[in-house]
Amino acid sequence: MPLAVFALMIASFGIGTTEFVIMGLLPEVAADMSVSLTRAGLLISGYALGVVFGGPVFTAAASRMPRKTMLLILMVLFIIGNALAAVAPAYWVLMVGRVFAAVCHGAFLGIGSVVAADLVDRDRRSRAISLVFTGLTVANVFGAPMGTWIGQSFDWRATFWMITAIGVVSLIGLIVLVPTRRNETPARLRDELGVFARGQVWAALAIAGLSIGSLFAAFSYISPLMTEVAGFSSGMLTPLLVLFGIGLVAGNLLGGRYADRAQVATLLTAQAALVAVLLVFTLTVQFQVAAAATLMLLGGAGFATVPGFMTRVIDKAAGAPTLASAVASSAANAGIAVGSYLAGATIDAGLGYTAPLWVGAAMAAVAFAVTFASGALDRRGSLARAAGAAAEPRLAGSSQGEAR
After folding, report:
1. pLDDT per position as a tens digit, 213-223
2. Which InterPro entries match (predicted)?
3. Structural domain range at position 326
4. Cα–Cα nearest to 42, from 81, 98, 101
5. Distance of alpha carbon 399 from alpha carbon 386, whole angstroms
6. Nearest-10 crossing angle of helices 125-138, 3-20
7. Cβ–Cβ under 8 Å, residues 236 and 244
8. CATH number (domain holding residue 209)
9. What secondary structure does DSSP assign to 285-306, as a single string?
10. Does 106 lie in the same domain as 192?
11. Which of 134, 241, 313, 322 has a CA 20 to 30 Å removed from the CA of 106?
């Protein structure tokens, strides 16, 4: 695998760390900034909005630039955003820094996926994309816990200085290792927008949002599920989250390997597994060891979909995939927002802490249905092309006979 892919993975690790670490530092940030915990929590929402809207807007605005240039600008924004957070004298400056970093997140993973796919042979694209997203998953296992520990042991600002340093290392890696494509012809914005007239592009985006949304519908309320229902102490949450993160890493890598062989089949298998794991979780949550094992399987099944749906977006947006790939990141985050909202609504309705598992299973089932329908359209198109190719020689022979 080219070293440039690993440079993209390191950058993805920094992006994932800055997204997730704030959740463990909210009390420290709230106290230092003299704001309520609820207002500090808006730093999470502000970041999410930056991902959903900022990434596609940046990608559209910079569509005429070479992709390497776009990646470098995004990493500079990431560095500026986290440095602003580290020195923020006021809450609003911290929020601006978070939004800067979020714009990088929204666009970088999409553009980085396209770049990674272009660096390898066609039959290794999903594996290359899975390595980019491995950085994001490892951030769950190592980056966010480490950043939380630094922030709680020293100062929350030290955490953002650490992330800024990761950004600098990533920027250097991108400059040195990602090749400059001298023959690259940047797509016109009209072409980038034009791919959204294709129904299969929208299907791929729906698969992204529903697949990840189903995972996070359950995961958003994993803390009360594991403490109130499974009976774990609050001190056990960190080891449990590490287990979940290990599942994310393993599922992502396996999904990349098998999506290269059979993209639709891998997506369908992962989505079916996700439905099954979520339904089984409603039973195993009563038993601590089984609940911990199921949590790890949940992470594996959920992130096994990522390389497949990212490669599918690139395939279906062939010719101008950059903006569509950035929108795929936005679609995934929109799915997270919808899944979390629906899960919360079931809890507010008094259905209990296992209700989000049913919401996730329903979303995963819809993702399965959309993927199946999209795959059926692929097969129908292939049969039509094969029939057309077979008819051409007969038509040519008939024309020659008529001429004689």
Report:
1. 999 888 878 87
2. MFS, MFS_dom, MFS_Efflux_Transporters, MFS_trans_sf
3. 187-389
4. 98
5. 20
6. 40
7. no
8. 1.20.1250.20
9. TTSHHHHHHHHHHHHHHHHTTH
10. no
11. 241
